[in-house]
Every structure is written in structure tokens, then in C-alpha cells.
Specification:
Number of helices: 11
Radius of gyration: 21 Å
Strand content: 15-25%
Order of helices and strands: HHEHEHEHHEEEEEHHHHEEEHEEEEEE
Helix content: 25-40%
Oligomer: single chain
Distance between the termini: 34 Å
């Protein structure tokens, strides 16, 4: 008789075999996805629905992780042919949905087969000590080589981050290597297990490590002004954070609603930080865009706190900031300013999200916005759906920024 682990691996491999005709028939060029310098495929709040949905009850949602993997690899090949970079992110809440959640150690080997560039920690990973111990001791956190992100979630005893505070992804196409700085935040979750502490987002954006990693360019160019820049940044962020939170309090809003590590050249006289869960230091590096994996709703008040803090600390209104939201299980999009947006891509593997944006100083290529499509059409024409299963916003996007919501349907 086939054991649980063997059976899961068998089902995974079977899915890969079954979808090969689908992949072969979709090998034509992907002409309608709005590719730009940076392109990101997104899943969030999958809640262990890695095998897709029931053919009896939800036949429309027939994509599993095998289909998703083949879609990503096909799109990756097409993007590389166009000299574009493609990344793949998971925005947390991998647990608590199907029977696989009863034994998380049976689920994580499947996730480890996916080529995620970065992952975020969701609140459902924090409900029990046993889950965190399993993720640590069985190597799930370490498997991602520094790209499992916990910018504001720490071990209660050591106060060190459970994963890593931040990481860099490297865009290697387009003639030169350019870094993308990536954070992974969780909303102000107050019900974590006894081993973990979730630090308040509005406090973390004022911490020195956060300011330091964002001010790399300023230190490199104005090393004699480091101290004054730090004081100014801390004061500005604190003022912005208090202003936003006070305005939300006055209006009655609750702030608790709810692939590889870069090897680019370090900055001159690099600073280090003990923000990793090990003792080895982090070297701060130059970057040309910021991506924030934010496990909170796309319209959550803390989204604006993070985005405003990044703007205040960097003092750079042209820096691209792409925030990827989650937790509230909807499709949503907002423009935050002319160079930053926030996107949330559904739940339970019903939606595959896609975002793209240009890196400076390139001139963005305008493409027709495509808001909703089936996964199969994503490999052909991406015809928009007249009535998507989940409401999607159509807020105008900044030039060069694009988002697409793909229905998890391969027909």
C-alpha cells in the first residue's frame, strides 16, 4: 500500500504528466501579457489547495500546483526570450484549508518543489507552536535560502526574525544585473502562538535596520551625512506613521483587520545587521525597486503606512514600489502614487496573479491592461472575462505598471 508521503509525491508527479499535452499546446509565444522589466507571478492564501478544487463541485477551478508550475516555466521561457525577468512569490497562509493541513509536514515537501523566488509568513502559520517547530526543524524555512521573509515576526525568546527581514532578488536581463529589495510583512496579528511575536508594523518601519537597508544609496553618495539622514528619516517616518494611525483612529478604522539570493556587488564600506535568524550578517546592497509581500488586505490601513515609510526614508518619488497583498481573500487593486501600486490575488488557488513594472531609467512600454483571463488564455490571447467569478477592480494604473488576474482554469 502506498504511504501518505509517497502518495502525495505520486499525485504531484501524476499532475505533471497529465498536463504535458496542455503545456505542449501552449508553447506558442505569450504575446498579450504586459511584460516589463520586472514581472511577478503571485499566489496567496492557497490554504493547502495545492491539488486544485473538486471536479464535482467546482469544475471551473481545475488548476493544481502542477499546472501552475508548467504555466510559470512556460512564461519564464517566453520572458527570457524577450529579455525580461520573471519572479514567482507566495504571500503566505499555506495552511488550514484541506486535509493536508492536518499534517503540515506532508504539505511542505510539495511546496518545496515549487520555484518560489520569495515567500511570506501568513497568520495561519502562527497558530500553533508545533507548526513553527516543524517549519524550523524539518528545514522548510532554511530551504528557501534566505527568501522566507518575516520582516515583523520574531522568535519570542531571542527577538530574532523567524525567517529573514528582507532579501534581494536579482534582475539579470536587460544588459546588467539590478537588485530588487523585498520585504515580507504580516498585519498586527495578536493571536500568535507562544513561540512567536508579531511586531507592530508602524513600529518596525521606524527600526534602524529598516531605515539602514533603504538608505543604502544615500549612505553611498553622502557618507558624511549619515547621522543627520538617520535622524531625519526616523523623525519623518514616526511623524507619518502617527499621522496615518491617528487619522484611522479618528475615523474608527481598526488596523488589525484582517530565486536566488543576490550576489551583486556590495556597497562601499558595507554595513551589516543581525536581522537574520542566524549569526551571519547581511550586506546591504544597492537596489532599484522595492517589492513588499504584505499579508494584509489590499485596502488595509497598514499598506499606506509601509508605502509612506519607504517614500519618506528613501526620499525618492521615482522609486518603483510594488506591494503584493493577501489575507482578505479577494481580488483587489489600488494605485498608491504615480510609481507604486498594491495588488491582491484571491484565495484557495482560484486566482493566479501577475504584476509587471519598469525599472528606472527605462521608458515604460504601454500595454493594454488585461484584468481577468483564464489560465489557458494567458498562453494565447488573454481575452478578458465579462463576468469574473470574483470582483476585480479596474482602477487606472501608473504608466508601465500592470496587473492581471488569471482564473485558475486550464480549459
Amino acid at each position: 500500500m502506498v504511504g501518505p508521503t509517497t502518495m502525495l509525491e505520486f499525485c504531484y508527479l501524476l499532475a505533471l504528466v497529465v498536463i504535458q499535452p496542455y503545456v505542449a499546446s501552449s508553447s506558442r509565444a505569450i504575446t498579450s501579457l504586459p511584460l516589463n522589466d520586472v514581472n511577478i507571478v503571485i499566489v496567496t492564501d492557497v490554504h493547502s489547495w495545492v491539488a486544485g478544487h473538486s471536479l464535482d463541485h467546482e469544475p471551473y477551478l481545475n488548476v493544481d500546483y502542477g499546472t501552475l508550475l508548467s504555466f510559470f516555466e512556460t512564461l519564464q521561457h517566453s520572458a527570457a526570450a524577450k529579455n525580461k525577468d520573471l519572479f514567482f512569490v507566495n504571500n503566505g497562509d499555506i495552511l488550514h484549508g484541506t486535509g493536508l493541513s492536518l499534517q503540515p509536514d506532508r504539505l511542505t515537501p510539495i511546496l518545496e518543489r515549487m520555484p518560489f523566488s520569495a515567500l511570506n509568513l501568513g497568520n495561519h502559520e502562527l497558530y500553533t507552536d508545533e507548526t513553527l517547530i516543524m517549519m524550523r526543524d524539518k528545514g522548510f524555512i532554511d530551504h528557501w535560502n534566505g527568501n522566507y521573509l518575516t520582516s515583523n515576526t520574531v522568535w519570542k525568546d531571542s527577538r530574532l526574525p523567524i525567517g529573514h527581514r528582507f532579501t534581494y532578488l536579482q534582475a539579470v536581463h536587460g544588459g546588467r544585473h539590478r537588485n530588487i529589495l523585498v520585504f515580507g510583512f504580516l498585519y498586527n496579528f495578536e493571536n500568535a502562538c507562544s513561540l512567536a511575536t508579531v511586531e507592530r508594523v508602524e513600529d518596525v518601519v521606524q527600526q534602524q535596520w529598516f531605515i539602514d537597508v533603504l538608505q543604502v544609496k544615500n549612505r553611498y553618495r553622502n557618507r558624511n551625512k549619515k547621522a543627520s539622514a538617520r535622524v531625519s528619516a526616523t523623525s519623518t517616518v514616526s511623524s507619518i506613521s502617527k499621522s496615518i494611525m491617528n487619522s484611522l483612529t479618528n475615523t474608527g478604522n481598526n488596523t488589525n483587520n484582517a530565486t536566488s539570493y543576490s550576489t551583486a556587488e556590495p556597497v562601499a564600506s558595507p554595513r551589516t545587521s543581525s536581522t537574520r535568524s542566524r549569526s551571519d550578517p547581511v550586506i546591504y546592497q544597492h537596489y532599484e525597486a522595492v517589492v513588499v509581500l504584505a499579508h494584509m488586505g489590499y485596502d488595509h490601513s497598514l499598506i499606506r503606512v509601509i508605502q509612506s515609510a519607504i517614500r519618506a526614508i528613501t526620499g525618492n518619488d521615482d522609486l518603483p514600489i510594488q506591494i503584493i497583498a493577501g489575507d482578505s481573500h479577494v481580488r483587489g487593486f489600488k494605485t498608491l502614487d504615480p510609481r507604486s501600486t498594491v495588488v491582491e490575488a484571491g484565495r484557495f488557488l482560484d486566482t493566479i496573479g501577475f504584476v509587471s513594472f519598469p525599472l528606472p531609467p527605462g521608458t515604460p512600454q504601454r500595454a493594454d491592461q488585461v484584468v481577468n483571463a483564464t489560465l489557458n488564455n494567458a498562453l494565447s490571447t488573454l481575452a478578458p472575462l465579462e463576468a469574473p467569478p470574483i470582483g476585480a477592480t479596474t482602477t487606472p494604473e501608473p504608466q508601465g505598471f500592470h496587473h492581471v488576474f488569471l482564473d485558475a482554469n486550464k480549459k
